[in-house]
Amino acid sequence: MKKSGTKNAGRSWGREKGIALFLVLWVLALLSVMVGEFCHTMRTDATTTWDFAQRTRAYYIAYAGIQKAIEQLVNDAMSPVKKKEGGEEGEEAGGGYFRLNYDNPKVPFGSGSFAVRIDNDSGKININMAGRRLLEVMLRSFNLDSDQVAVIVDSIMDWRDKDNLHRVNGAEDDYYEGLPQPYECKDDYFDSVEELLLVRGVTEEIFYGGLRDMITVHIPEGAGSRKARKAVRGRYNFNKINLNAAPKRVLASLPGMNEEAIKAIEEYRKEKDFTSVAQLAQVIDADIYQSVAPYLTVRMAPYYTVRSTGYSEDEMAKETVSAVIQIDTTAPKRYVVVQWMDKIRPSVAY
Question: What percentage of the chain exceeds 70 in pLDDT?
Fold first, then answer.
């Protein structure tokens, strides 16, 4: 009997040791998972913090690029930079000079660098100020029939004028209030290019298919009255497009223009700017020149779109900032920020 009891006690003790070992292993496994999860969380937090720091640094480097561009534009307005032979701008103290309407090389700044592009609004069609002929030219590259063009042009002019009388092919309140989602005709200037989507005949396919990148709406403050508009037009011809600033799509819309002529213009602009429209006659065919010259100028508008991309150290992160700047030498700071866009991401094609 004594041997049997001892044997049972041994077996019981063995089972308890097995259970204890299982519990220890289970606790160790649980602790391993917890430690692993903790390490993963810490590593993720550290990576997120590092990424945030890099992006913040890149953002403020991009911001510095915007400020540097504004400084140049104001200085040019106050005392225009003399150009070297060949049309190249001279260098200013403390760094290179940004060419307009051009992808400028990166400029070192602090532990990173920024790349700045400055585009003048004069290369786009101002739908608040352009006349009928230029509005019709604007639509040439969209494969629209004459009736569609007439509807869009008349409707743009009805939208921006001050009365409620519609043109032959245009639209006023009676048309817009009859839509499934009714609204009134604005009878005032466009405040944004996206507003054009409200105008009769303008579809998303047309707008996002290229029209958005061809137009602008910026006009000097106080240009609402007829007298003020006349004064504004006296300073700048809104029915002409700046040869140095016009994007490819705008050039392609000009009557008689072809791909070969556009390529020749783009190649010329890579090296230097046109200082007069007459210089274009040396670059493209004479017949094409005669056709497009009436629509062109080299005069600048007072509005600039400045786009700056900042890069952190070793280009580990980048951020892009864009601003529309009006240069006004009568303003307290000599400029006005019309629009500011932070942390721009690449757009998706329509």
Answer: 82
